[in-house]
Amino acid sequence: MKYYQYIRIVLILIPIIILAVLFYKDFNPAGYLKVDYDFCRENPFVSKFSPTGRVLEIEKIKTVAGKDCQQKMVVDPVYFDVRLTQKFDQARLKLWYQKDLVTPLRIGPAINLSNWQWQLKDINYLLTTQNFGEGWLVGTAEYNLKNIQPDKNILRFLISSPGLDLSAKEIVFGRVAIEFIKEPLTKNNFFERLKEWIKFSNIYYALN
What we know:
Blueprint: H1 2-27, E1 32-37, E2 59-63, E3 66-73, E4 78-83, E5 90-98, E6 106-112, E7 117-118, E8 121-122, E9 124-129, E10 136-144, E11 154-160, H2 164-167, E12 171-181, H3 190-200, H4 202-207
Antiparallel strand pairs: 1-12, 2-3, 3-12, 4-11, 5-10, 5-12, 6-7, 6-8, 6-11, 9-10
């Protein structure tokens, strides 16, 4: 009899523990979220680049590090979405890409989609990397998200390169990583963070 009771207790505890872990990760008490999209694998936080036609099909390539993927942008502008679990104060974007020196490249989140306002920033060259092969660059940009109004819990990014199609050139992307940062959870901001998490959760939008 005790054996079956133990099994029953374990079966009850397992889903509770799983839900607790998922809640902890979603609630994010550290105030830090990093999303990383390498074009080979779908990411639950980052959408694919779109629309089709402005970006070509994802290509698999052989690199120094092994097998990787890349995607070419041929027409401006291009978009991708990031699903957030809550509102953040700052974002740091790092991009692995190929382009020539004269082709402009700016990326930024939507400040207000309804008014078509964007916080576009130049991608600042950081270093040259050989991980993908010859000609790959790494660049960064930082954003202030305090006045950003996400569409529900989705933050849309715009990739801008005016005149790209007229120049018959292309920009190649190999990886994008974004760090989202805010003040860590404390006893003083617990209820504010909880309210914010509920507002950003899928449950909130399902009820509204």
